Structures are given as C-alpha cells and as structure tokens.
Amino acid sequence: MTASPDRLALRGDLLDFTGTPALDDAASPAVRWRPDHWLLIERGRIVGAVPGSQPPGDDWAREDHRGRLLMPGFIDTHVHCPQLDVIASYGSSLLDWLDTYTFPAEQRFADAEAAHAGSALFLDALLAHGTTAAAVYPTVHATSAEALFQAAAARGMRLVTGKVLMDRHAPPALCDDVAGAEADCEALIARWHGRGRASYAVTVRFAITSTPAQLAMAGELCRRHPGLYMQTHVAENRDEVRWAAELFPEARSYLDVYHRAGLLNERAILAHGIWLDDADRALLAGTGAHIAHCPTSNLFLGSGLFDWAAARAAGVRVSVATDVGGGTTLCMPRTLAEAYKVQALQGRRLSAWAALHAATRGAAEALRLGDEIGSLEPGQLADVVAWDWAHGPVATHRDRIAQAQAHPHALHARVFAWLTLADERQVAASWVAGVPRWRREADRTPQAAALG
Ligand code: GUN
Ligand code: ZN
C-alpha cells in the first residue's frame, strides 16, 4: 500500500486547470483536458504526460485507470477533525449546535489516545474521499494538534493545522489561557512548522471565544513567525455577528476584529464570510486573506448564502471547504454540487470549472501552495486521485448520454453531470506524493490494478 516505485505512470482522463476560470464560463480556456493520457511521476513528483497510445518504457511501473478521471487531489481548506463524531446532528443553528453537540464532542480529544485514533480515522477518511491536503481544526488541546501532525506526517500529507485558541464562552474543559496557549503554540511551531509538509496555523476558533488579550497574542505570534497560517471563522451566522458586535464595539465589523489584532494576511483562511459588506471585501482583497466557502455547512445550519460573485468582483480569493461537522460530507464533489445550488438560489450559475478550480488549483494558490499542489503541472508533488465517471444505474445512464453529445460545451456538460452526481464511492485510489495511500476495496487486488 505504501511502496512507491521511482517511476510511476497512471493512465486515465487527465483534468486540471492552467489558470482561473470565470465563475460562469462553460468554455473556459483555463481548463486542461487530456483524455486517455499517461501521467508520469518520478520520485513523487509529476514530470509530464504522454498520450495513452505512447506508454512509457518498461522501467516505469504502470497503472491503467482508463475510463477514469485523474485529477489533482482535492484540498479541503476548512474542516474539523473531532467533529466526525457529530456530523449530521439534528436541529440547531450555529451557536446552539456548538453548545449542544460540538463542544461536548471536542472534550474527548483531551485524551491523547482518543486524539491519535481520531486523527488517523479522519485523515484516512479524507483520502478515501479524494482529498489529499487540508487545513484542519483539532481541539484546544495541544495533544490533538500533535496527533494530527503526526498522522499527516505518517501519510506524507500536506497539512495546515494548529491548536485551537479559546479562552472564553466555552466549557471550562475547553478553555485555555493566554500564557499557556502561547507556550503551547510556540512549542508546536518549533516542532512542526515547515517540517516535511506540515505548516502551523494560528487557530483562533472565532472572535467570540477569544478575549482581546488572546487575539493580541495570536496576532503577535503571526508577526513573530512570518509564514504561519491563520485560520478562523467569520460572519457565518446573524446571531454570531450580533454577539461579536457586542463584544467588540470598537471594531467597524466582525472582520475588523481580526484586522485590528493583526490577524489578516496572505496566509489567513477565513471560513464562511456570508455576512460581509463591501468594506470587508476590500479589506480581504487588500490583505490577501481568503474565504473558505462552506456550502453544505451553510445550508445545514441555515447560516445563509455566500455571495461568491461579490467576492470575485472585489478581488477576494475563494476556496471551497467541507466544514465537517457543520458540513455534512467530506466529499468535495458533493460539496461543490451544493456550492452550485447556493449560487442558483441567488440567480447565478457556477460552472463546473470554477467549482473544481476552487477545490484544486484555486485553493492551492489561495494557500500560497501553488508551486506544490493543485494541478498536474510538471514539478508538482503527485497528489492525485482516480475517480470513476459514474456509480449506479442513474449516473451511469446520464454519463452515457453526456458522452454521446457533441455540442460545443459537451465536456463541461459531462463534467458538470459528474460533479452533481458523484460521491466518494467513485474514488478508486488516492496517491500522496506518488505513494498510493488509499485504494477502494475492489481495486486492491493485483488484477484490479492491472499493469497497462
Ligand atoms: N464557529 C466557531 N466554531 C465553529 C465550528 O466548529 N463550526 C462552524 N461551522 N462554525 C464555527
Ligand atoms: Zn468550521
């Protein structure tokens, strides 16, 4: 399962992006479509691609995934590891949901054994869903961040994480204090930031659960260690926005709370950003901070509809994220299909290209990791996933019809139908830096992974 030949060739339909598609352009020139090609990987890095009819020599290990999509692994820019325990919990909006389900569940991760088991389960689940890199929240416990870093290192995965900062408005068992949190962060940064594919993120849960003193400490960490990420939530829910305004009357807006603390920079990931105004969007664009749009979470918790067009018009970068357990799936195609519906509810249409870009190359660029992941460009680490075009009779039928069509946007029509109907059962295999880290049960036999 973890052996990696020095030279590996994967055959399939290659799909990635060479630029940024417009939000609604089905004919975007940024799409790179290479049906039936061999993707060539040497020592974990992509080195090129050649047509299926021209297989590389016998010194290449070959895997034939003909009739499957081969794409860059998805990048989930906002997801909570311990919340697999509460995914799909009934009946509340954000603040209730945190109190009723989430905070109790997160207390389990105080126990190192639970944190290690939970981290392994979570990262294996990401790989099984075709996601090879992520920005993840563990819990307030330093041990939970340590467990995630270790689990990601064992799998060779690109991971952005850091212990959650919370020193108020949460159960005592989940609250830290400024000095203790700073010491924990410094120790984790020294141990993990820049080690292999790990990056540390100063992880302010949200303005409501941090005192002004803790926010100031978090800003100081960002200044002290250039290159750190910062991740938090912003303007997700109207009651949350009202509470933030009460707690920080001096700030112009919820986003401005973070700006005043020195937390907005080009490595800042802000989840949701539903209830923002034009000045907020200008601030995001100016600082280079980006929004992780979380459609299944926003619909499930009834938080609101993210205005992607306004963000794009203001020059704000946007990635798409699952936000499990507020979100209802780790599967990025299902998440992107919901992103389409969130725009449809606002009278707009999101192309499959814009959606897929936001979970691959767009996410990588927003994270300033565009040199490492997000496309099938030579030089990139080979984080790659093989997807079936369809699962089950309805999707198979629909895909056959899409393949038979010959209009100018036929490829978009086929990929859009795939995106709308796909789920994780269609992930045949996931490679991380050229190493197969997950294979579907049916694809685990040597016959199934036949050489081409
Ligand atoms: N805001 C603060 N914490 C959380 C969380 O865990 N999930 C979501 N969706 N929003 C939050
Ligand atoms: Zn979240």
Give a topology summary.
Blueprint: E1 7-17, E2 31-42, E3 45-51, E4 61-72, E5 74-80, H1 94-106, H2 112-128, E6 131-137, H3 142-155, E7 158-161, E8 164-165, H4 178-192, E9 198-204, H5 212-224, E10 229-234, H6 238-247, H7 254-260, E11 268-272, H8 278-287, E12 290-293, H9 295-300, H10 308-313, E13 318-320, H11 332-344, H12 352-358, H13 361-366, E14 384-388, H14 392-404, H15 410-421, E15 427-432, E16 435-439
Helix pairs in contact: 2-3, 3-4, 4-5, 11-15, 14-15
Bound molecules: guanine and zinc ion.
The level-1 CATH class of the largest domain: Alpha Beta
- Write out the CATH superfamily name of the largest domain: Metal-dependent hydrolases
Number of strands: 16
Low-confidence stretches: none
| CATH-derived architecture of the largest domain | Alpha-Beta Barrel
Give the amount of beta strand, in percent: 15-25%
What is the helix fraction of residues, given as a range? 25-40%
- Structural class designation: alpha/beta
* Bound small molecules, deduplicated: guanine, zinc ion
**C-alpha Rg (nearest Å):** 21 Å
Please, how many domains? 2
- In the CATH scheme, what's the topology name of the largest domain? TIM Barrel
Number of helices: 15
